[in-house]
Amino acid sequence: MKVKSQTLGILGGGQLGRMSALAAARLGIKTIILCPEKGCPASLISTGFIEADYLDKEALKQLADQCDIITYEFENIPLKTIEFLQDFVPVYPDHKLLEASQNRLKEKKFLNDIGIETAPWAPCHKADDIKATLEEWQTRECIIKTARFGYDGKGQIFYKDNSDYLESWNSLRTDEAIIEGVIDFDYEISVIVARDEKKTVKTYPIGINEHKNHILWKTTAPAHIPDEIQNEAARLAHLVAEKIELIGVLTLELFITKDGRVLANEIAPRTHNSGHWTIEATHASQFENHVRAVCGLPLGSTDAFAKATMINLIGDDVNDIPGYLEQDNAHIHLYGKEEARDGRKMGHVTIVEKF
Ligand SMILES: Nc1ncnc2c1ncn2[C@@H]1O[C@H](COP(=O)(O)OP(=O)(O)O)[C@@H](O)[C@H]1O
Ligand SMILES: [Mg+2]
Hints:
The chain is an alpha+beta fold. The protein is 28% helix and 29% strand. The strands form 3 sheets. Strands 9, 10, 11, 12, 13, 14, 15, 16 and 17 form a 9-stranded antiparallel beta sheet that branches. The protein has a 4-stranded parallel beta sheet with strand order 3-2-1-4, sandwiched between helices. Strands 5-8-6-7 form a 4-stranded antiparallel beta sheet, with helices on both faces.
């Protein structure tokens, strides 16, 4: 008897693609990575690799010819790429999700339109917009973020007091940004949701996220937070997943205010750094469920059977590896990046403890 195995194409070659490819391999699914960067983390462990720009139609066609399904592992894949590929092979999640999450203005509007509360926000196309918005809100501080391509706090400034409007605006080097009110949150959480072809939706237990220099440093899960907040977070993630007709995994980042309000910060149209702990402490990890959903398989259980603390190894933190190697309950993940630059995510460690 012959068993047909599926081939999954992944646009993007970072650590999220790498961990998805590893999850796919366990399910007997082959992966082909398309990424412009030779030696990228995912390409080192995948079945195949195409080194090409995301707009290289010939390379995209080559990928489509070899794959049964295609997915993406980061949000800056051009929409045109997805539209091109869709004529040849199914691409999940749908480009509606990418569109909503690629631009912070569209993202906030989408969230508010479906009834999800966010920080107050206003579009910003010139220095005067900052002045006008602060006057309207009667405040002296705000966060200004480029509408596109920001990550790990890049492309954002904290505007305070009487800083020079023009200087602040120019420092962002953009022509489109969002002004956000500063939320004095109590803590930050993220909720990861998976949805399959049969419309089954499952959310993972929530993790509490701590940042250092605007980069996620530590996630502790399952979080000890009130049930009402967990339920509300899960409700919001379900809502986004349904509205977007998600097939795959997405993540909703949330702020919890001191008076218990749950505000959405951003949508990641993909698996998330705050969900790496699911590899060791849940039955089916975020990567496995993403692969299952896009490949037409039923979702696995998202229940946690242990407590986990995930710590990112950023830049020189890789030097801590010898210590973690001595620790029995430390699960080490290295992404195969050769140069430990400042702020670069080199790997992570998940410390697992029994409930
Ligand atoms: N409106 C806001 N009020 C308070 N803190 C914020 C606000 N927006 C962002 N932050 C802080 O900055 C971090 C990064 O911002 P975010 O919008 O998630 O961008 P990215 O993760 O893409 O860099 C958030 O996790 C949060 O700690
Ligand atoms: Mg974020």
